[in-house]
Amino acid sequence: MTVKKEKLVLVGNGMAGVNAVEHLLKLTPDKYEVTIFGSEPHPNYNRILLSYVLAGDSKVEDIVIHPYEWYANNHITLHTNQTITDIDTTAQTVTSDKGLTVSYDKLILATGSNPFMIPMPGADKEGVMAYRTIRDCEIMIESAKKYKKAIVIGGGLLGLEAARGFLNLGMKVDVVHIVDTIMERQLDRTASKMLQAALEEQGINFLLEKQSAEIVGGKRVTGLKFKDGTVAEADLIVMAVGIRPNVELAKKAGVECNPGIVVTDYLQTSVPNIYAVGECAMHRGIAYGLVAPLYEQGAVLAKHLAGVETGPYEGSILYTKLKVSGVDVFSGGKFGDAEGTKAIRIHDEFTGVYKKVVIKDNKIIGAVLFGDTADGTRLMQMIREETDISGMGKTAILTDGSSGSGGASSGVADMKDDAIICGCNGVTKGTICSAIKDQGLTTVDEVKNCTTASRSCGGCKPLVSDLLAFTLGASYDKNAAKETICACTDHTRDEVVTAIREKGLSHVREVMNVLGWKNEEGCSKCRPALNYYLGMVSPETYKDDSTSRFVNERMHANIQKDGTYSVVPRIYGGVTNPTELKRIAEVAEQFNVPTVKFTGGQRLDLLGVKKEDLTAMWEALDMPSGYAYGKALRTVKTCVGETFCRFGTGDAMGVGIELEKRFERLNTPAKVKLAVSGCPRNCAESGIKDLGVVSVDGGWELYAGGNGGVKVRVGDLLTTVKTEQDIIEYTEAYLQYYRETGKYGERTSEWVHRLGIEHIRDVVENEEERKQLCARMDLALSVTKDPWKQAIDSKKIQRDLYEVVELN
Question: What b-and-e string marks burial along 429-455, b requiring 16 or more CB atoms within 10 Å of the CB?
Answer without folding.
Answer: bebbbebbeeeebbbbbbbbebbbbbb
